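Subgroup meeting minutes
Present: P.N., E.W., G.H.
Scribe: E.W.

1. P.N. recapped why we're keeping a running log of single-chain structure predictions: easier to compare across weeks, and new members can see raw inputs and outputs side by side.
2. G.H. added today's entry (239 aa).
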Amino acid sequence: MSDEPWLILPTYNEAENVEAIVTAAGAVLARASRAGFRVLVVDDGSPDGTGKIADRLAGEHDWVEVLHRAQKSGIGPAYLAGFTHALANDAGYVLEMDSDFSHDPADLARLLQAVYSGADLALGSRYVPGGGVRDWSLLRRFISEGGSTYARLVLGLSVRDLTGGFKCFRRDVLEAIHFDSVRSRGYAFQVELTYRAVRAGFRVVEVPIVFKDRQHGQSKMSWRIAAEAMWLVPRLRFR
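Output recorded in log:
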Protein backbone atom coordinates (compact mmCIF):
# COMPACT_ATOMS: atom_id res chain seq x y z
CA MET A 1 0.00 0.00 0.00
CA SER A 2 1.21 3.50 -0.84
CA ASP A 3 2.54 5.82 1.88
CA GLU A 4 1.30 8.81 -0.10
CA PRO A 5 -0.88 11.45 1.61
CA TRP A 6 -3.87 12.88 -0.22
CA LEU A 7 -5.39 16.26 0.65
CA ILE A 8 -9.11 16.60 -0.05
CA LEU A 9 -10.31 20.14 -0.78
CA PRO A 10 -14.10 20.49 -1.16
CA THR A 11 -15.12 23.59 -3.10
CA TYR A 12 -18.27 25.48 -3.94
CA ASN A 13 -17.86 28.99 -5.35
CA GLU A 14 -14.22 29.31 -4.29
CA ALA A 15 -12.89 30.89 -7.49
CA GLU A 16 -11.15 33.58 -5.44
CA ASN A 17 -9.34 31.03 -3.28
CA VAL A 18 -8.84 27.74 -5.10
CA GLU A 19 -5.62 28.48 -6.98
CA ALA A 20 -3.93 30.08 -3.98
CA ILE A 21 -4.94 27.31 -1.55
CA VAL A 22 -3.88 24.50 -3.89
CA THR A 23 -0.52 26.19 -4.50
CA ALA A 24 0.11 26.86 -0.80
CA ALA A 25 -0.93 23.38 0.29
CA GLY A 26 1.18 21.75 -2.40
CA ALA A 27 4.29 23.65 -1.27
CA VAL A 28 3.79 22.50 2.34
CA LEU A 29 3.10 18.88 1.46
CA ALA A 30 6.10 18.73 -0.87
CA ARG A 31 8.31 19.43 2.15
CA ALA A 32 6.38 17.44 4.76
CA SER A 33 5.50 14.21 2.97
CA ARG A 34 7.75 11.17 3.05
CA ALA A 35 6.42 9.73 -0.21
CA GLY A 36 4.96 12.25 -2.62
CA PHE A 37 1.45 13.65 -2.27
CA ARG A 38 -1.77 14.41 -4.13
CA VAL A 39 -4.30 17.23 -3.87
CA LEU A 40 -7.87 16.36 -4.85
CA VAL A 41 -10.29 19.23 -5.46
CA VAL A 42 -13.90 18.06 -5.08
CA ASP A 43 -16.06 20.68 -6.76
CA ASP A 44 -19.84 20.62 -6.38
CA GLY A 45 -20.72 22.25 -9.69
CA SER A 46 -19.62 25.76 -8.69
CA PRO A 47 -21.33 28.32 -10.95
CA ASP A 48 -18.46 30.81 -10.43
CA GLY A 49 -15.94 28.75 -12.43
CA THR A 50 -14.06 27.15 -9.52
CA GLY A 51 -14.07 23.79 -11.31
CA LYS A 52 -12.53 25.25 -14.47
CA ILE A 53 -9.72 26.84 -12.46
CA ALA A 54 -9.11 23.51 -10.72
CA ASP A 55 -9.00 21.73 -14.09
CA ARG A 56 -6.37 24.18 -15.29
CA LEU A 57 -4.30 23.52 -12.16
CA ALA A 58 -4.58 19.77 -12.76
CA GLY A 59 -3.22 20.34 -16.25
CA GLU A 60 -0.27 22.28 -14.85
CA HIS A 61 0.61 19.99 -11.92
CA ASP A 62 0.72 16.21 -11.96
CA TRP A 63 -0.12 16.12 -8.22
CA VAL A 64 -3.51 17.84 -8.65
CA GLU A 65 -6.74 16.00 -9.51
CA VAL A 66 -10.30 17.25 -9.78
CA LEU A 67 -13.48 15.38 -8.97
CA HIS A 68 -16.55 17.09 -10.42
CA ARG A 69 -19.93 16.55 -8.79
CA ALA A 70 -23.12 17.69 -10.48
CA GLN A 71 -24.53 19.77 -7.65
CA LYS A 72 -24.05 21.03 -4.11
CA SER A 73 -25.29 18.41 -1.65
CA GLY A 74 -23.41 19.21 1.56
CA ILE A 75 -19.87 19.07 2.87
CA GLY A 76 -20.28 15.50 4.12
CA PRO A 77 -21.09 13.88 0.77
CA ALA A 78 -18.33 15.92 -0.90
CA TYR A 79 -15.75 14.65 1.58
CA LEU A 80 -16.98 11.06 1.33
CA ALA A 81 -16.66 11.21 -2.46
CA GLY A 82 -13.11 12.50 -2.06
CA PHE A 83 -12.20 9.91 0.57
CA THR A 84 -13.55 7.11 -1.62
CA HIS A 85 -11.51 8.30 -4.60
CA ALA A 86 -8.33 8.66 -2.54
CA LEU A 87 -8.65 5.20 -0.96
CA ALA A 88 -9.35 3.64 -4.36
CA ASN A 89 -6.08 5.16 -5.56
CA ASP A 90 -3.99 3.72 -2.69
CA ALA A 91 -3.74 6.78 -0.43
CA GLY A 92 -1.82 5.94 2.73
CA TYR A 93 -3.06 9.02 4.59
CA VAL A 94 -5.96 11.37 3.88
CA LEU A 95 -6.07 15.00 4.97
CA GLU A 96 -9.01 17.38 4.85
CA MET A 97 -9.20 21.15 5.21
CA ASP A 98 -11.31 24.14 4.21
CA SER A 99 -10.54 25.77 0.88
CA ASP A 100 -10.82 29.39 2.05
CA PHE A 101 -7.64 29.84 4.16
CA SER A 102 -9.57 29.55 7.42
CA HIS A 103 -7.11 26.73 8.04
CA ASP A 104 -3.45 27.66 7.66
CA PRO A 105 -1.85 25.39 5.01
CA ALA A 106 1.40 25.47 7.02
CA ASP A 107 -0.37 23.37 9.69
CA LEU A 108 -0.73 20.49 7.24
CA ALA A 109 2.86 19.57 8.11
CA ARG A 110 2.06 19.39 11.82
CA LEU A 111 -0.99 17.20 11.29
CA LEU A 112 0.92 14.85 9.02
CA GLN A 113 3.80 14.66 11.49
CA ALA A 114 1.41 13.78 14.31
CA VAL A 115 0.16 10.79 12.33
CA TYR A 116 3.70 9.81 11.30
CA SER A 117 4.50 9.84 15.03
CA GLY A 118 1.76 7.40 15.98
CA ALA A 119 -1.65 9.06 15.95
CA ASP A 120 -4.37 7.37 13.93
CA LEU A 121 -6.30 10.61 13.54
CA ALA A 122 -4.81 14.07 14.06
CA LEU A 123 -7.28 16.92 14.59
CA GLY A 124 -6.50 20.59 14.13
CA SER A 125 -7.98 21.86 17.39
CA ARG A 126 -9.09 25.38 18.29
CA TYR A 127 -9.97 24.48 21.86
CA VAL A 128 -6.78 23.07 23.35
CA PRO A 129 -3.90 25.15 24.78
CA GLY A 130 -2.19 26.98 21.94
CA GLY A 131 -5.27 26.89 19.73
CA GLY A 132 -7.81 29.63 19.08
CA VAL A 133 -9.90 31.60 16.60
CA ARG A 134 -9.45 34.99 14.97
CA ASP A 135 -11.88 37.58 13.58
CA TRP A 136 -15.03 35.87 14.86
CA SER A 137 -18.12 37.51 16.30
CA LEU A 138 -19.28 36.53 19.78
CA LEU A 139 -22.27 34.76 18.25
CA ARG A 140 -20.10 32.58 16.03
CA ARG A 141 -17.80 31.73 18.93
CA PHE A 142 -20.82 30.74 20.99
CA ILE A 143 -22.20 28.49 18.23
CA SER A 144 -18.85 26.80 17.60
CA GLU A 145 -17.70 26.29 21.20
CA GLY A 146 -21.21 25.46 22.33
CA GLY A 147 -21.57 22.91 19.54
CA SER A 148 -18.33 21.18 20.46
CA THR A 149 -19.19 21.16 24.17
CA TYR A 150 -22.69 19.84 23.50
CA ALA A 151 -21.37 17.03 21.27
CA ARG A 152 -18.62 16.14 23.74
CA LEU A 153 -21.06 15.82 26.63
CA VAL A 154 -23.71 13.89 24.71
CA LEU A 155 -21.19 11.49 23.15
CA GLY A 156 -19.04 11.08 26.25
CA LEU A 157 -15.79 12.03 24.50
CA SER A 158 -12.71 13.84 25.75
CA VAL A 159 -11.90 15.44 22.37
CA ARG A 160 -12.19 19.23 22.77
CA ASP A 161 -12.80 20.29 19.16
CA LEU A 162 -15.36 17.95 17.64
CA THR A 163 -16.72 20.28 14.97
CA GLY A 164 -13.46 21.27 13.26
CA GLY A 165 -12.74 20.16 9.70
CA PHE A 166 -8.92 20.15 9.65
CA LYS A 167 -7.81 16.51 9.97
CA CYS A 168 -5.34 13.84 8.95
CA PHE A 169 -6.44 10.19 8.91
CA ARG A 170 -4.47 7.02 8.59
CA ARG A 171 -5.95 4.98 5.79
CA ASP A 172 -7.23 2.26 8.12
CA VAL A 173 -9.33 4.76 10.10
CA LEU A 174 -11.37 5.65 7.03
CA GLU A 175 -11.56 2.00 6.01
CA ALA A 176 -13.15 1.24 9.38
CA ILE A 177 -15.86 3.89 8.85
CA HIS A 178 -18.67 2.52 6.72
CA PHE A 179 -19.36 5.47 4.45
CA ASP A 180 -22.76 4.23 3.35
CA SER A 181 -24.05 4.52 6.93
CA VAL A 182 -22.77 8.07 7.58
CA ARG A 183 -25.89 10.22 8.02
CA SER A 184 -24.54 13.73 8.54
CA ARG A 185 -24.27 16.09 5.61
CA GLY A 186 -23.21 19.40 7.18
CA TYR A 187 -21.91 20.63 10.55
CA ALA A 188 -22.38 17.26 12.27
CA PHE A 189 -20.29 15.37 9.70
CA GLN A 190 -16.99 16.13 11.46
CA VAL A 191 -18.48 15.09 14.80
CA GLU A 192 -19.65 11.79 13.36
CA LEU A 193 -16.29 10.90 11.80
CA THR A 194 -14.38 11.53 15.02
CA TYR A 195 -16.95 9.69 17.12
CA ARG A 196 -16.76 6.65 14.85
CA ALA A 197 -12.94 6.70 14.99
CA VAL A 198 -12.92 6.81 18.80
CA ARG A 199 -15.55 4.06 19.05
CA ALA A 200 -13.44 1.89 16.76
CA GLY A 201 -10.51 2.21 19.16
CA PHE A 202 -8.26 4.51 17.15
CA ARG A 203 -5.88 6.98 18.80
CA VAL A 204 -6.98 10.58 18.31
CA VAL A 205 -4.55 13.47 18.92
CA GLU A 206 -5.48 17.16 18.95
CA VAL A 207 -2.94 19.53 17.39
CA PRO A 208 -3.46 23.21 18.34
CA ILE A 209 -4.32 25.51 15.44
CA VAL A 210 -5.56 29.07 15.06
CA PHE A 211 -8.66 29.32 12.87
CA LYS A 212 -9.07 32.55 10.88
CA ASP A 213 -12.21 33.88 9.24
CA ARG A 214 -12.22 33.72 5.46
CA GLN A 215 -11.04 36.80 3.56
CA HIS A 216 -12.77 36.08 0.23
CA GLY A 217 -16.10 34.53 -0.66
CA GLN A 218 -19.03 33.66 1.58
CA SER A 219 -19.25 31.27 4.52
CA LYS A 220 -21.32 28.11 3.95
CA MET A 221 -22.43 27.97 7.62
CA SER A 222 -26.15 28.38 8.28
CA TRP A 223 -28.63 27.87 11.11
CA ARG A 224 -30.03 24.86 9.23
CA ILE A 225 -26.61 23.19 9.28
CA ALA A 226 -26.18 23.91 12.99
CA ALA A 227 -29.67 22.57 13.71
CA GLU A 228 -28.81 19.33 11.91
CA ALA A 229 -26.01 18.78 14.40
CA MET A 230 -28.33 19.36 17.37
CA TRP A 231 -30.61 16.47 16.49
CA LEU A 232 -28.08 14.14 14.87
CA VAL A 233 -25.60 14.04 17.76
CA PRO A 234 -27.96 12.24 20.20
CA ARG A 235 -28.84 9.76 17.46
CA LEU A 236 -25.15 8.91 17.09
CA ARG A 237 -24.94 8.11 20.78
CA PHE A 238 -28.16 6.17 21.25
CA ARG A 239 -28.83 4.44 17.95
